[in-house]
Amino acid sequence: MGRTLAEKILQRHTDETITGAGQIARCKVSLVLANDITAPLAIKSFRAMGATKVFDRDRVALVMDHFTPNKDIDSAEQVRGVREFAAEMGVTRYFEGGDCGVEHALLPELGLVGPGDVVVGADSHTCTYGGLGAFATGMGSTDIAAAMAMGETWFKVPPTIRVDIEGTMPLWLSAKDLVLKTIGETGVSGALYKALEFGGPVVDAMDAESRMTIANMAIEAGGKVGLFPVDTVALDFAKAHGHAGCAPLAADADAVYERRIRIDVTTMSPQVACPHLPDNVKPVEEVKDVVIHQSVIGSCTNGRISDLRAAAEVLRGRKAAKGVRLIVLPATPRIWRQAMDEGLFTVFLDAGAVIGPPTCGPCLGGHMGILAKGERSIATTNRNFKGRMGSLESEVYLSSPAVAAASAVAGRIIHPQDL
Amino acid sequence: MKFTGKAHTMGAHIDTDAIIPARFLVTTDTAELGKNCMEGLEPGWIAKVRPGDIFVADENFGCGSSREHAPLAILGAGVKVVVAHSFARIFYRNGFNMGLTLVEIGDAVKDIKDGDQLEVDTTAGVIRNLTTGKEIVCQPVPPSMQEILDAGGLVPFVKKRIGAGA
Hints:
The complex is a heterodimer. By secondary structure, chain A is of the alpha/beta class. Chain A is built from 14 helices and 18 strands. In chain A, the strands form 5 sheets. A 5-stranded parallel β-sheet of chain A has the order 4-3-2-5-6. In chain A, strands 16-15-14-17-18 form a 5-stranded parallel β-sheet. Chain A has a 4-stranded parallel β-sheet with strand order 10-9-8-11. In chain A, strand 2, helix 2 and strand 3 (about 60-65) form a beta-alpha-beta unit. Chain A is globular and about 60 Å long. Chain B has a 7-stranded mixed β-sheet with strand order 4-3-2-1-5-6-7, with helices on one face. Chain B has 6 helices and 7 strands. Chain B is globular and about 45 Å long. Chains A and B meet through helix 2, helix 3 and helix 5 of A and helix 3, helix 4 and helix 6 of B.
């Protein structure tokens, strides 16, 4: 019987024979991750378990990205605790300040995660690395503490929903639109406990950054992982970023899927997820003229260089509308420098944007772009839960970088082609 | 294990930002988190909850972030058990790890009204609605999960298993 990608990757990390969905398997992990919000709890649990050293000081990543630069005394104290722990354990992958970027942009860029890996992170968007063909999933801090101590964890082998993306990509359509469309199809709980596996001609032709954008939001469908095949795109990305020793990997043609979804992109419009759930997805035409007060371009979903280029393309020679705060947050220092070197910052500054440091910041209502009562933001982030970006009486619309940029210019939600 | 308490009902897709908004994630203290539990659902909502009360939610409870602060906040508010149509995956694992009992009952959740007095028997796999007299049969908590709960969560469970020094 054929195997899914999820089953194949897990098999490479366990001595047990993976026989199919529902089986509980103990697997070795390639990398364990926590951030400035979740690491403090993980460390507390780690110590309480009686653990005295991490399983491998090169394979524990601690990324201080959420409230960075530390927004207040309490967050600074949390980071201080993690910094001291990293020093005590000799953790080599501790990132803070100028080394630090949004974790799910940073770790692939540094080649610390890659094709065929099993990665667990105390962050729900750990699933991003599925874009490179890694079985990567979010867990809570205590599960992560146990994995930090033992270098392994247990998984229930998930059933898989296969998503085939076909057709010809129209102008202005991007990976974000495809994942929003997918979540619109499945609903926010449609992939609960399950793997999403993406394939089809559009996926085959898609670059690694776009794949990570899609995999990133698998959790918004309830999914455990969002997986892409390890093909030349993934292998080239891994090689370019110094992640060695990867081999091609694809689902078997006769793999068993719980459900198949087909998406044809040929006539698709850019998609927008409306308040207050990521599955409340509509074509941009149906929400046009919704007035916005803020536009955020960044995050682990859409803060990579290709996203900034897409936004700059729309913003070039244009200005954000009066009353709209346009916030651009390149996701890592390397992306920041590249955007600067390419002249994108001139475009953003001319458009009236605030260019911030690499941080998760406003995505989770942390800092650097919090919404007041009655305010509305369009954002390239991943969640639009009630109160996510600030006041319980504020609203977040999720979109692609191009739509977020165009909407900043118009002062209302708009299709870039209609600017 | 048996829990008796008053039901506090809520809707579907209650996310972790509703359970404990990010601005409160600057502490790992359970009691402190408990004070701000459900502050993202409705400010002050938790004031009506008494220790021993029971949360009852529709599908996909706990969706969103992996923050373990969410089950901790619920425990900090004195709630020991959540009954739901279904739970989001990461939250489900976190709940048991933190020693919070989670019971999935599907559509039967609609038979529980806000304020009903419930007796949740996780060993027998039955929820008795003491207000209406109705009984809801559910899956007992799996023995492997019950072991973690009996130990008081994953930390004491692992500690007991491996002794000091993992």
